[in-house]
Structures are given as structure tokens and as C-alpha cells.
Amino acid sequence: MVGETLTPNVRPPVDKETGAALAEIVEPTEGTPRPIFNPQLSASIGSLLEEWRNADTLRAAGLRPALSTMIFGPPGTGKTMLAHFIGAEIGLPVVVAKLDGLISSFLGTTARNIANLFTFADRYRCVLLLDEFDAIAKLRDDPHELGEIKRVVNTLLQCVDARSSVGFTIAITNHEALLDPAVWRRFDIRIEVPQPVIEVRQEILRQRLATVIDQPERLRFLAWLMEGASGSDLEKLTDFLRRQCAIRKDAFDFLQSLRAYVQLSAQQADGERRRLVAGSQEDLARALSEDKATTFNQEQLAALFGKTQPTISRWVKRGR
User: Fold this and answer.
1) pLDDT tops 60 at residue 211
2) Into how many domains does the chain fold?
3) Angstrom distances, CA of residue 72 to CA of 67, 80, 235, 286
4) Distance of CA 176 to the CA centre of its chain
5) Do residues 18 and 139 both lie within one domain?
6) What's the pLDDT band for 74 if we cut at 50, 70, 90?
7) Using CA atoms, how far apart are residues 303 and 300, in angstroms rounded to an integer?
8) Which of 140, 173, 192 is the endpoint of a domain?
9) One domain for residues 121 and 269
């Protein structure tokens, strides 16, 4: 790849009116966490990494590597973590665009800031990361926007086109429907990151609770409870349980701590599973035994609740 080495001494460009930085430079570090996805998505990301690691080889063979990637999906699913992981894996610093510096109230300044940011990124060997991409790549026919958004998007398209033959670019959005259609065509790779399925949730929980919970029944129960949760939601849950375990030590009560978490993280549309955790253990055990998607047998329920198997049997039969 062409370009100068981006050293820690290099300062990012700034807005000429306000002096605000247009980007933050994140150096590659060993041990950057790898996001946990389903096997198919993980394999596809592996293929992308292989291509980006061999970009010089592809150029030497007269081939054009796919250097621009759009990552989209619901909030909290690991999109930004994935971008930083890619940067660390290919050993390049990540130039993270800062929206508070890029977007200006002065006419024409936002477009100029975008052009200056790309000029900076094109000069160095780096990954340019455009997080919350929809803020600068909105539909140009939005009736609520003035002509300024058209100038911004036109500048952005020109910059992405020019950079596609120079360096790596990653754009991230939670609102892909807001993007101008012309923007999609500028990205060779488009990755949708979905909400984690139960197997992925269980693996995330296993890794983050390795020092706290080693019972498979509890991990499977947490994965069941957090249906529809994002990776960010799972992180909040595991952080809470780890704090409780650190404070209470041998007195740590798994179910009581979980009930406290449910009550302290109430949502407007709490599901039936969270309500069951806040209720009686007997009702919860019965619901788990009757759940067809994630069946718990009575032996597993006894281990989960710390009860004898006859007690669990009575709970289940009483419901019937």
C-alpha cells in the first residue's frame, strides 16, 4: 500500500473555524477483542481480512482489492468493535472520524472538513473509520434538509471514489435506510451484523463470565433470558454480575443478583422472560421446563435453582 507511516506524533486535521479535531487516531494494539459472531459471518470476515492483508499481492497481480466496507445492523451488535479488530489484525492505525468536528453550522464547512479528512487519510497508511455514517450520507432528496446536505453527500461520494484505489475505508451505520442509494454503490463489501442468536449469546456470556460462572445450565439460562439482546446488552449484564460477585464473594447468589439486575435495568417493553425472573422461582422453573425452543430437564433445573430434583418435579406438576 502507498502512503506514509502514520506515527503517534502526527496530529489529525482540524476545523479551521473552531479548531476542533476532525478525527481521532487509534494505534493498533495486540489483544484487541475479537467480536463474536455466528460461524458464517466469522468465516466471511476472515476472507475479508485475508484479502486486506494481501492487498499488495493483488495489486502486483493486476487485480483491484476491495478496500471499502460498509458495516450495518442494529445498535450494540459489535460493528465498531469489528472495525477496530480489522485495523489491529492488518496492523494499521484507525483514523476515526469525529462527527462533532466534521459537522459545522457554517455553510460549506462540513463538505470542506470531509475533503480535508480524506486528504489526510489518503496521505497515510491507515484505516479510515466513518462511524455513524448516516449523519453525513443521508438521502439527498430528504425534504427536511436544505441544499447543504446535497453538497456534503456529493463531496463524500467523490472522496470515497478517490480513496477506493488508495486505502482502506470502513463505514458504519445503525440506520442503513437513511443512506443515499448512491452511497451503497461506492462500497465493495457490505456486511450486515445481526442480533446474536442464542448460541452466539451463550458464547459471549461464557467468555465474559469465565471467572464467575462455570455451570453450563446458568449460561444457557442467561442466553435464554436475553433473547433479542445485543452484544452491548450482554456486556452490561455480565459487568453487573461480575461486580456483584466481586463484592459478595462466597455470599454471591446468582438468581438474587439476576433479579436485582432485571429490576435495575427495567425497559418500557420488558418481555415475559424478564418478568418471570422478577417473580417466583417456581413459575420460572415451570416456564423453562415447558419452553420448546430451549428445553431444560429436571436435573438441569435442579442444578440451576440449587434445589433437589423431587422439588423441581413438584413445581412442574403443580403447574399442570
Assistant:
1) yes
2) 2
3) 17, 10, 20, 38
4) 15
5) yes
6) very high
7) 5
8) 192
9) no
**Distance, CA of 90 to chain centre:** 19
What are the tens digits of pLDDT across the range 148-176? 778 888 899 999 999 988 899 999 999 99
Task: Say whether both 53 and 116 belong to one domain.
Answer: yes
Which of 130, 163, 192 terminates a domain? The answer is 192
Are 182 and 230 in the same domain? no
Dist. CA 13–CA 105, nearest whole Å: 18
Report the candidate in 304, 302, 303, 300 with the shortest Cα–Cα distance to residue 312.
302
Q: Which residue has the higher pLDDT, 30 or 86?
A: 86
- DSSP lists the bridge partners of residue 179 as 138
- Same domain as 266, residue 129: no
Q: Is 213 exposed, middle or buried (0-12, 13-18, 19+ CB in 10 A)?
A: buried
CB contact at 8 A, 111 and 152? yes
The predicted model gives 301-312 an average pLDDT of 92
25 and 133 assigned to the same domain: yes
Compute CA 195 distance to the chain's CA centroid, rounded to the nearest angstrom: 10
Beta bridge partners of 171: 70, 130
Cell digits for 201?
449469546
pTM here? 0.88
Nearest to 230 by CA among 35, 89, 83: 35
225-240: pLDDT as tens digits: 999 899 999 999 999 9
State the residue range of the domain holding 306.
198-319
